[in-house]
Amino acid sequence: MVDPSQAGMVALGAGIAVGLAGIGAGMGEQAIGAAAVGAMAEDEKFFGKGLLMTVIPESIAIFGLVVSLILLFVF
Amino acid sequence: MGASNNVKYAYIVARVRAMKSKLIPRDMYPKILNMEIPEITRFIEESEYKKDVDELAKKYKGTELIEHAMSQNLALTYRKLIEVSQNEANFLITEYLRFWDIWNIKTMLRGKFSGASEEDIVEHLVAAGQLSYRDLMELVKIGTVEGVIGALSRTPYYPALEGYKGDLAEIENALDKWYYAKRIEAAIQTGNKLFLKFLRTEIDLKNLKMLFRMKRAGMEREDIMKLIIPGGMELKEADLNRLASLPLNEFVRALEEFSYWNAIADVSSDLSSLINIEIRLDKYGLEYAARISYYYPLSILPILDYILSKKIEVDNLRIIVHGKETKLPEEIIKAHLVM
Fold first, then answer.
1. How many Å apart are CA B88 and CA B236, to the nearest integer?
2. Which domain holds residue A36?
3. Residues 22-81 of B with CB under 8 A from A
4. How many CB pairs below 8 Å do chains A and B form together?
5. What ipTM was estimated for this complex?
6. Which long-range contacts (CB under 8 A, 24 or more apart) does A42-46 make?
7. Count: domains in chain A
8. Each residue's pLDDT tens digit in chain A (75 positions)?
9. How far is A73 from chain B (nearest CA, A)?
10. How far is it, in rounded angstroms, from Cα B65 to Cα B60?
11. In a domain, A49, yes or no
12. Angle made by CA atoms B6, B9, B15, in degrees to the nearest 5
């Protein structure tokens, strides 16, 4: 267990993990999202593929979330 | 290329790629060639041109309808590219599409010069540039070449036109030179090296076609050099000077040192008609545009590739329709297609 005096640092680490992962995912998604909307504007059939491609960088955000959960509940 | 540049082009490139997927595939042309005019008309009516055909069906009939529908579709497609693009892409597309203003001005001046009717001139206009359909319709109503030039005095094209002294070829050449000089300026202004590269290759191909025509017509070096457009990629001024001074056979052999040779090598021996060579050079341009647009997928190049592919699709369909209408043999029509 973490020393109670260090608990704040753990919470801070968990926050940074989620925050940075979120920013990274967002940066990855901006071009993919723009391209998906462009393709969809021409052909609605691209909706499924576009959505799938757009959420792929979202896995990075999930990694951040997992790391923060480990920090908060395992240590 | 920076990340922000990638994002800038992601939307428009994805849209253009989706539009390109709707173009008539290359292997479809032999099938269209086997069709008769009513079947071709039906095929075009059921394709991407449907809306334009329906819209113009009240005004025109038969091949005239197809001709107008294709011109309208081309103009609307290009206008759409300008409307859906932003910032640098929008600026470069707008500048590139001024080609159609030059095209329309040339068509109009040629029409007025030869005394063609208003309908005949309108049939060949494509309102895809900065001069709107309404502007063009007003220009068509003017009776003389001088009148048309006067009406264009407030446009950026006027400097190329004002020197008109009865020689149409001279101002047509001035318009071409103006167009490419301005495009190069736009490329330098935005710092877009890929646009510049594409443009300079286009200039090379245009100069090569010009050299072939002029050499075949037996023109002198001084006269040829007046028509050459400066700023090419491989064919620098010194090369062009040298090529222009050689006799036709040696000129063709001298082209071996340039990369364009591969495109024309097997047809270079037959100079009885330049159609084969010009079609090969057009094809080279099309393949080059497709190839470099895959090297730089998030740039202006896929858009330019689409602009070129769309123009060639319309040209090919026009050639087929006119060829079939005049009952030309299939082989001759096929020889004129870029595919």
1. 28
2. 29-75
3. 22
4. 40
5. 0.81
6. A42/B15, A42/B18, A42/B19, A42/B22, A43/B18, A43/B21, A46/B18
7. 1
8. 678 888 889 999 999 999 999 999 999 999 999 999 999 999 999 999 999 999 999 999 999 999 999 998 887
9. 37
10. 5
11. yes
12. 135
